[in-house]
């Protein structure tokens, strides 16, 4: 008798497909632009203070502007005239994953034509088995996972030649257990997670040397309990998500010092309720996901205030035109919209 | 997009933006066509450079350039000048791209790829890095690149340590520099480089450095984690040591003969028998290699099979802090009149190793006596299973000498004496004393309070045999922190709980004051189990398990527990009350799977099933982690799809009594499921099961 997977709610199923860690700082910056210094401390006059309190309470009582976000996601896909859309064209596969998963979390997956999407995804696949970020680009493990995840989201993994895709991923494992992103050999623990997550969705983890993969991840562990890109690399919440999630999937969470890492992670919550990705950095909605899900996996999520985090996420919404930004009143994008909605879903 | 205002500061010229986008798209499609047709002409390669300057993240363009470089290099293999000019051009393109986007993965990797070819001079690299790091001292790409360059240039760890010192001197708030310092120092200490052989001296120096950061701006987190690392380095025992065991050294244990136990196991004082007698070893850290060749068990009777030691760990690993085995002693071997001496020798032959690879080198020996008790059972106790009721009036204050004469003696010897610990701790104690005194000046802020609390706790950990001191002060500090920093309330609360449990388990007197006889009408005093009651303590996390290995009946009700991680060490546990806590899922109770003696379980009045996304789902193998074999789930007749968590945790348990009422998950169908899953069940939520 075969075991039938448990029936899950939409959000449970979606989150079980672990979001993709991409370029954490997905930056489009001008030369020389560096991190903003923290804003100077200001003491508001009493009346203003009271008004702020009222205002923030009102926002806190609000909810996700779900319909607006759905509209925003659909609009992003159609906008071709913006400079950003041209700059981001090479990672459309990731964009598809963020947008479609957000729709799914908001229970609106059926507003898109899945056949059209699947057709496009298959056009991005290469002879090697890997997927590119868009038609005409090179295959890379980053986009291969997104392709697998979107197909899994639509329950269409059957269109894949599983053997071919999994062989491509497994072929990127190096002698020391690490993974390269593509044939050009960039090594990063993000790719370890991606390989492990992708292969586990395809139920092909036996194609790689899991023990070595785990050992490589452990070699990237730092004295603060976190993990970096490569051995010696500084801890970073996105990187920690990748490593902890990879260890969770492979049943190796005992290598994580949960109390030590838990303290580092919970101290990512700053006064505004938002989470940053490293000490002494500004909060950013995308870390709602990286930090929150890492804390969840090591069972220390109660060490932060979820209420304050939700308030911060809701404050980053563009309630007029939809979408979520990194910080209140910044420009929205699909990446932060996804991580805001995912973070809110786990925290709620 | 990070840090861009939602409403642009200047009005946007939409036509200009559209034209710019159009131009970029045209460039991109021209480039892709070149790439597809493998055109590497000068113009084509220049186009890719132009494109990368606008959009450094365009990974395919970096790949294209690598292909072009390979082709060009192949054509001029013998001419070093052309080789250099080809590669220099690449370095220039990378530099331009990095000026546009300092965080471009593709650009940094391209540079590494070029340098790894070994033709370019490295001299420029550190200078370039200095320039970039002056703009953003925290950029982790730059730091990664620096480690790459240092390795390629074979720069010494000492020189790099000096560099971190310079960076820290410039700005104490550079977490990246502190991090790199921790990496370099770990290396230098590990290989015992000259000047780094004395841990005492190195740590003293570092404490001084990080103190400067912490006292300059107490809210700046950069030094926080470094200080905690130093503290850990100060007190952590590198050597794996045996901390406690069951049975404890010198104990005298009456063993009910198996014949007299059958059929009434749940209500007897002893929940082990000669057929199933547990041995437990509790180490100070995770170890592997505990087996019948590294641990020898000798006794006055014949044990004719090799003992199988099992790691008590929720993962599949072969390492754990706690290891257990069960002796099966043939009754024929024992005579009721005799006492049998049992000796457990741990680590006399090599093979036990810590997860960091340090061998267990301090052999321990535990001796205890076993004798067989063949007392006939009293009436009223044999035929029926009584129901355990966790009500206050069922518990009577412990009277020494009545039920378990050995208890008092046993509680005196809970911790194993390790000579290494008591002799080697002088410099550690000195450092911690000094630090504590200094940080008392910082008690008006969060990190000051937290650091003092940690230092005082660390001091106790250096002397595990002595009664902990300063517990009251530490508890007070954590209480203050809960008020001061409410966002992290639960972190302080959990630490508060751990210290509270240390205090409760620190002495025989304190433990005895929490021991009670369980009594109800069906039991005589003689047969009444002894219960450790840690209820109503407001604890949110469990700890001090090494002091609790002897516990068979445990009341943890009316606390704030969310997890019972670690409870699997209590192998004797037979009755457990967890009612009125904050458990949100069955997965939070996973430790139960390892408690093979457990018969009575109360998890009523919790929050199980109230959260749609289970908080600990990813902690163990589940259908979602795609690692559970289908054979595990061969139970179609049960509603396992809905209740798979409960199924996974409870399936092999021999429970006779279970209380689950008052949880979101409870329903009629759930009870039906439980009755099918647990055929041994006699009582479910107070109702007798048919």
Fold and architecture overview:
The complex is a heterodimer of chains A (348) and B (690). Chain A has 348 residues and is an all-alpha fold. Helix content of chain A is 48%, strand content 1%. Chain A has 15 helices and 2 strands. In chain A, helix 5 packs parallel to helix 15 (334-347) and helix 9 (189-201) packs parallel to helix 11 (237-249). The two termini of chain A are 36 Å apart. With 690 residues, chain B is α/β, with parallel strands linked by helices. Chain B has helices spanning 14-36, 42-54, 59-75, 80-100, 105-115, 123-135, 140-152, 157-170, 175-190, 199-216, 224-235, 258-261, 407-412, 419-423, 426-439, 446-462, 471-484, 489-504, 508-512, 644-650, 668-677; strands at residues 242-246, 252-256, 277-288, 295-299, 310-311, 319-327, 339-346, 353-354, 364-373, 395-397, 515-518, 530-533, 553-555, 575-577, 600-602, 657-659, 683-684, 687-688. In chain B, helix 3 packs antiparallel against helix 4, helix 10 (199-216) runs antiparallel to helix 11 and helix 15 (426-439) packs antiparallel against helix 16 (446-462). The longest helix of chain B is centred in the N-terminal third of the chain and has 23 residues, at 14-36. Mean pLDDT of chain B is 85; it is low at 260-270, 377-384 and 614-637. Chains A and B meet through helix 1, helix 4, helix 11, helix 12 and strand 2 of A and helix 1, helix 3, helix 5, helix 7 and helix 9 of B.
